[in-house]
Amino acid sequence: MDAYYGQSHILRDLSMHVEEGEVCALLGRNGAGKTTTLRSIAGARPPDVREGTVSFKGRNVTDRSTEDISSLGISLVPEERRVFPNLSVEENLHLSDVARNWSNTVGRDVSMDHPGMSTEEVYEVFPRLEERASQKAGTLSGGEQQMLAIARALKQDTDLLMLDEPYEGLAPQIIQTVENAIERIAETGTTILLVEQNAVAAMNIADRAYVVDQGSIVFAGGSEELRGDEEIRERYLGV
Ligand SMILES: Nc1ncnc2c1ncn2[C@@H]1O[C@H](COP(=O)(O)OP(=O)(O)OP(=O)(O)O)[C@@H](O)[C@H]1O
């Protein structure tokens, strides 16, 4: 696909696919076009997708609204970790239930492989959140807020979970906790598309990886293959 912000041509003939049930990483330097790719898939506008298509489970979803796309089972956890700072962890999770029930009443024409998790299931994935259930979200650590943002996404019916830089600003041992949680989510069969600056951490959990540079894919292959490709790593990832 080709995507633009106004006149700026950002994604240039970018082509990728994510297999059902896999963890796929999209890597690349600052400004390479990673977030733009996720927003294009999620139907967030801007950017404008002017050429090419986004398809999900065989349907063309290119011109659908974000609400429509989310009701088809695609959830995006943006870099900003959207949580309600003045509400407790539990209240944040409860609000996601409200949103989900509302979207169910609107009705949809597809069956979901991964219906939204209950609060109990979310707490199994993130025991830390249960410990902090009554704490205000705004007072959680960065890692805990990331867990809450992911947890809120999982309360929606999610067949494809897209995570934009989930490790950003987190200390190594917290990265490990978030990593374990992502692995647990993947074990449930939920497909994951992970955008990361931290290529080493992403390669640890991804089955396959794409590297994007200046809006185009410059590498596609298995994580092992990328690990062994010193030229691509040095040139585009700086690792
Ligand atoms: N709203 C916008 N309007 C105009 N240009 C934008 C907008 N958002 C992003 N861009 C530009 O699009 C290009 C790709 O940005 P994008 O956010 O997709 O990069 P990224 O790979 O996610 O980088 P980072 O890792 O720094 O988040 C950059 O040159 C950026 O300046």
From TrEMBL:
Q: Which Gene3D superfamilies match?
A: P-loop containing nucleotide triphosphate hydrolases
Q: Which organism is it from?
A: Halobaculum lipolyticum
Molecular function (GO) terms for this protein are:
ATP binding
| Residue stretches making up the ABC transporter domain | 1-239
What protein family is recorded? Belongs to the ABC transporter superfamily.
The record's keywords, sorted A to Z, are: Amino-acid transport, ATP-binding, Nucleotide-binding, Transport
Top-rank taxon, per record: Archaea
* Listed InterPro entries: AAA+_ATPase (IPR003593), ABC_transporter-like_ATP-bd (IPR003439), ABC_transporter-like_CS (IPR017871), BCAA_Transport_ATP-bd_LivF (IPR052156), P-loop_NTPase (IPR027417)
Q: What is this protein called?
A: ABC transporter ATP-binding protein
**In this record, what's one Pfam family?**
ABC_tran
| Gene Ontology BP term (one) | amino acid transport
